[in-house]
Write a structure and sequence with these properties.
There is one protein chain. Strand 1 and strand 2 form a beta hairpin. With 496 residues, the chain is α+β, with helices and mostly antiparallel strands. The chain is built from eleven helices and 21 strands. 29% of the residues lie in helices and 25% in strands. The longest helix is centred in the N-terminal third of the chain and has 21 residues.
Amino acid sequence: MPRTLRHRPMRRLKATVLASAVSVCLLAASAPPTPLGVGDRLFPYLGNPGYDVASYDLAFTYPGDNGKPLQAVTTIDARVTRTLRSVNLDFGHGKVASVEVDGRPAAFTTAGEDLVVTPKAPLPEHSLTRITVHHTSDPATAQGRDGGWVRTADGLAMANQADAAHLVFPCNDHPSDKALFTIRVTAPDGYTAVANGLPEGVARAGGRATWTYRTRHPMATELAQVSIGRSTVLHRTGPHGLPVRDVVPSKDRKALEPWLAKTPDQIAWMESKVGRYPFETYGLLMASATTGFELETQTLSLFERDLFTDPAYPKWYVESVMVHELSHQWFGDSVTPRAWSDLWLNEGHATWYEALYAEEKAHKSMETRMKAAYGASDQWRAAGGPPARPKPPAAGQKTGIFRANVYDGAALVLYALRRQIGEAAFERLERAWVRGNRDSTATTADFVRLASDVAGRDLSGFFKAWLYGAKTPPMPGHPDWKPAPRQKNVPRTMKR
């Protein structure tokens, strides 16, 4: 606190206060812009404080060459949560031509991977604001970074997890700030554009087409998806009349159709476990690209085409991977982690239902898989941290948080929980979790509280050991399960 000035003459006091205010303003005006963040333990500069995004309107113009930048306009509608003299947006890979705030030109500069926008007047707390950025969106790989646009054999797709959406468009790139999306893509005739949500129409003029899509549920930036290619969109109907649409390279349509036909039954299977599908549509985007992973982008999951065409992958394995990404629509997309340390809630559940599907449909024993996971769990914890406290990724390897400790290591936690509270209580918990947190964000602490409520007893000690312990606790009902001898190399998963 400042020392008291009450004994000074009033005139001098006013002069002193005025001089101090001027000094503060000068200092604020001259202070260099700095990158901000929302305090995520794993990604400290991801996201930005001071506003809550309500919606994004993304407009991309594709030049017909996936090696050249797209022209783009990003419009952000947001609610200001504290008075802002400047607004930080995450944007790390593209050129900004101009910025407007509420229709008026605004100054802008960069700081780290932030675009710092200074409007002509401060934005008052509780006000609504619209920020429009005219920029390029560059599909060339950002130096030292992975993610963003993925170049396919005939166009582009997106892979923005975990922190790469801001390599594509300016945004508040943290899963805690979900928003509605409208996505418009203009491309030359002969290309098809598909994005998250439902189509709103296509307008054709001058040898080009503009495709518009809109989500009906809020979405995290890392789940945004845009496909541009010489593609065919296949339509079918899922449970309750759900529109299912798949995007495939046109030349592969016939070969891929038997796999795509499985999706409606897989959705019905997931609904039998956790309740009704949470979004307005679903489908698979099969990309002619090598990514090393599959990705649960909301309502349109990204898959490598070769997963379905390479005979080296067993049929049961491919189907279980399809269910892994499908289950993310409930766990990760509809119920989104509030911080990246809560990633186990996404991947543990997706791995759990992947394994359960393989057990029920292909007779691949869940217990055998979990026993193997138990044997490796101590090694996974040492390499990547315990499931709910993963180690930060190495520099330039932001996808490094996707380690075995948050896949089978986290599914092992759910296996232990089911044995601890019983199958009936576990199933009630799963349904209550996705129903109570639909279209929202949630934390590990939220899951622990709900599990305790459903079980009728305090499970905080159980979860503390299983989620945060350096060593894997004894498995309930399996005192014979032991850690396996240490292995030097643990294979990396291809799923996300």
